[in-house]
Specification:
The complex is a heterodimer.
Chain A: H1 2-26, H2 30-54, H3 65-74, H4 76-110, H5 113-127, H6 135-142, H7 146-169, H8 174-182, H9 187-221, H10 231-240, H11 244-272, H12 277-282
Helix pairs in contact in A: 1-2, 3-11, 4-7, 4-9, 5-7, 6-7, 7-9, 9-11, 10-11
Chain B: H1 4-37, H2 43-51, H3 61-73, H4 83-114, H5 116-128, H6 138-147, H7 153-176, H8 181-189, H9 194-228, H10 238-248, H11 251-282
Classes of the chains: A mainly alpha, B mainly alpha.
Organism (chain B): Thioclava dalianensis
Membrane topology (chain B): Multi-pass membrane protein
Keywords (chain B): Cell membrane, Membrane, Transmembrane, Transmembrane helix, Transport
Chain lengths: ~280, ~290
């Protein structure tokens, strides 16, 4: 048992040394910038495994990565059911509705300076509030199923996207607007051909923030009541049954879903705003 | 100052919509009650009844205000029904976590700016971890720590610290790298040591970045603490107040707790903003 611990610590130190050497010698090459974080991640996982096995920590407190992987492989159907319930039905539908509503409202208030001056401070204020707190209220109104989770997500993503979109619609300068005016462009032509494209970098900034918020809203809302499936439900019941490997499997799914969701939005951003300097610089 | 009138009219519009929604959402209960008693509902009865139900679907604004006033000033501050008491429990955990997360974030950021190996290995993970819904697993962390015998303020503070940690880390790394090559070269001609450069150039020039992250971080800390108070064991704090309200259908209690949390968040963000303005002005940066 002690062998595990010593092996893990030695491996961690060796990996750190290798990373330091790589960073010194090849820090500017592309392959090193993938290898170094990967090696660091693997060494952390091994250290975790070694500590749990070596110090004989009970899986009730902290399961080893290998146990989590076993549980992950064994409970595929449960994980898939929870994924569909929480991520696809709750988070994704709420995300789409909330973001669409925010964009439409942003375009509407952009036409009226009065509304802009009135709604923006309120929107900024609300964006800083602990909005998750409305989860119990919305669960009461919309019932236990995914509709209430989607409602929580709608409210959570609405304000960050709104604030960013309004800033984006104001991003064109006077010169560009004057150019459209000399073309005798109508309001709608100016909106679709100039201001919406110019707003895209700002919009995607908000959309990326909203991906994490959507998952948080959907999972936290399940703590206030849910049908007998869903990630939040599974996490709270599995903790009650001391089935910690299953809990960590759910966390893995949530982490993968979160990164995948974010990555997908970032990919769409790359396709839509290919013209923006921040995207061109990377290519 | 010219935005006061628009803001006020938006707020007034929200109030009007809220009162309208109150009548609409609560009318079902009123009609049910009337049907059971065999009476018909007049308009005036509908209006007064929907505004004064004990467990409304949506409490009217004045009911929430009443609940808020009762909770804040109607009890002794040490009473378990006082919102000041619960807000204090939440605030203390938030502040401990906030201090912890800020300290750790600054330390790690200093390490990252001085070691290329650390930068390349830790930063990608720090950024990737931002996309993971950490907040959602907070209640689980609390339960596991409780089974180890760690209860009370510390587990909540850990969650708050974790949520504050990443904004501070990312902001400080950016801030510590903010000095340009000319300034760094000047210090080199002074033969300044690395720690001298850190104290006299890098840290001062990172202050605007630090405060920008702290404003995000303090709000995140508060949300983290409130969510950490949700597991069934907790009886104190604004999160526990929300949960018990939702179990017993005490909607007024939920809304009062929610508004207290909102007020607390606003106070914290404003406080950080005031400190920012004072510090930056003293340093000649604002």
């Amino acid at each position: 048992m002690m062998g595990w611990l010593i092996f893990a610590v030695v491996f961690w130190i060796a990996a750190w040394g290798a990373n330091a050497w790589l960073a010194q010698r090849h820090g500017h090459q592309k392959w090193a910038q993938f290898t170094i974080p990967a090696l660091f991640g693997i060494s952390i996982l091994l250290l975790w495994e070694g500590l749990v096995l070596g110090l004989e920590i009970s899986p009730v407190i902290l399961p080893a990565p290998s146990q989590i992987a076993q549980s992950f492989a064994a409970s595929g159907p449960i994980l898939r059911e929870d994924f569909v319930q929480t991520i696809l039905k709750g988070a994704l539908s709420g995300y789409l509705m909330g973001c669409a509503a925010a964009v439409v409202v942003a375009v509407l208030i952009d036409r009226s300076p009065f509304l802009q001056r009135g709604l923006l401070p309120v929107g900024n204020f609300v964006a800083a509030l602990p909005i998750v707190g409305i989860a119990p209220i919305l669960v009461m109104w919309f019932g236990f199923d995914w509709q209430s989770k989607a409602a929580v997500v709608v409210v959570m993503v609405f304000f960050p996207v709104l604030v960013n979109m309004v800033a984006g619609l104001a991003a064109t300068d006077q010169l560009q607007r004057d150019l459209m005016a000399t073309y005798s462009a109508s309001y709608w032509q100016g909106l679709f051909k100039m201001r919406l494209p110019a707003a895209m970098p700002f919009l995607f900034n908000g959309l990326k923030i909203a991906t994490t918020l959507a998952l948080i809203g959907a999972i936290v809302a399940e703590f206030f009541g849910s049908p007998t499936r869903g990630m939040g439900f599974r996490i709270s019941t599995a903790v009650g049954q001391l089935d910690l490997p299953l809990v960590w499997s759910e966390i893995t799914v949530a982490a993968l879903a979160g990164s995948g969701f974010y990555g997908a939005v970032a990919l769409i951003e790359k396709l839509v705003t290919f013209w923006h300097p921040s995207q061109r610089a990377r290519a | 100052m010219k935005s006061i009138a628009p803001v006020l009219s938006v707020l007034a519009a929200i109030l009007v919509i809220w009162y309208g929604a109150t009548v609409l959402l609560n009318s079902k209960w009123t009609y049910d009650q009337a049907a059971r008693a065999g009476e018909s509902v007049s308009i005036s009865h509908l209006l007064t009844d929907t505004m004064s139900q004990k467990r409304p679907v949506l409490p009217a604004p004045h009911q929430v205000a009443q609940g808020l006033w009762d909770g804040l000033f109607g009890q002794r501050f040490t009473s378990k029904r006082s919102l000041v008491f619960h807000a204090w429990i939440t605030l203390s955990a938030t502040m401990v976590g906030f201090a912890l997360g800020t300290g750790l974030g600054i330390l790690l950021a200093v390490g990252i700016t001085h070691s290329r190996a650390m930068d390349l290995s830790v930063m990608p993970w720090a950024i990737a971890s931002q996309t993971v819904p950490i907040l959602a697993i907070a209640p689980m962390v609390i339960v596991v720590l409780a089974s180890l015998g760690v209860t009370g303020l510390l587990p909540k503070a850990l969650i708050a610290a974790y949520l504050n940690f990443f904004p501070v880390l990312v902001g400080m790394v950016k801030g510590l790298r903010a000095p340009d090559a000319m300034q760094l070269d000047l210090l080199k001609t002074y033969n300044a040591s690395r720690s001298g450069t850190l104290w006299k150039l890098r840290l001062p020039s990172s202050m605007p970045y630090l405060f920008a992250s702290l404003k995000v971080g303090v709000a995140a800390s508060l949300v983290g603490t409130i969510v950490a108070e949700l597991p069934a064991g907790a009886t104190q704090g604004l999160g526990a107040r929300l949960l018990s309200g939702s179990y017993y259908g005490q909607t007024v209690q939920i809304w009062a707790a929610l508004f207290t949390a909102a007020g607390l968040a606003a106070i914290l963000v404003i406080a950080v903003g005031v400190i920012e303005r004072v510090v930056l002005r003293r340093m000649g940066m604002a």
